[in-house]
């Protein structure tokens, strides 16, 4: 893949296994309002969407949403970071990719992303981070990927995007960039991988 100049990562489910951290975070908010813990369907939704979208989904009674958001703003996300499991190959792959490739993140996380970067020493390993706060339309809209292409002044054919959800698949398709599905064979993608360590083989192909 000689044209690729930037490799873009989703965060949750790709860079990190955030299953337990996201469950703990949202279940704490639900418990505070005497709601039951998330169902599998609710977790699947919250795992992919922005925190604002997730809370609307969890609290169908929108009259309570103001109180929910007020409580959310009181919660420090730092205690939940300990539940995040970094993908074993992430650091070594980022070090291997740079400086031959630019590296970026496109995530529906919002104000928690910088904490995650700082906690795991990732800040210096990425050239650009685009969160839900940096765009009008989060994924599945392609705006995050467009923003990255514009920043580096690249064509869609020069980007490779790694994601694990239907939202990532849709964003990549709409942006016209090659998509690598991580750990999810059900997604339509140019490539499928189960480990980030497989990326160099893809980049060296063709």
Element layout with pairings:
Blueprint: E1 6-9, E2 16-17, H1 19-32, H2 40-48, H3 51-58, H4 65-74, H5 78-81, E3 85-86, H6 90-97, E4 102-106, H7 113-119, E5 128-130, H8 143-152, E6 159-163, H9 166-175, E7 178-182, E8 191-193, H10 199-203
Helix pairs in contact: 2-3
How would you portray this structure in words?
It contains 10 helices and 8 strands. A 6-stranded parallel beta sheet has the order 5-4-1-6-7-8, with helices on one face. The chain has a two-stranded antiparallel sheet with strand order 2-3. It has 2 domains: 6-17 and 84-203, Rossmann fold (3-Layer(aba) Sandwich), CATH 3.40.50; 19-81. Helix 2 (40-48) packs antiparallel against helix 3. The mean pLDDT is 94. It has helices at residues 19-32, 40-48, 51-58, 65-74, 78-81, 90-97, 113-119, 143-152, 166-175, 199-203; strands spanning 6-9, 16-17, 85-86, 102-106, 128-130, 159-163, 178-182, 191-193. It is globular. The protein is an alpha/beta fold and 206 residues long.
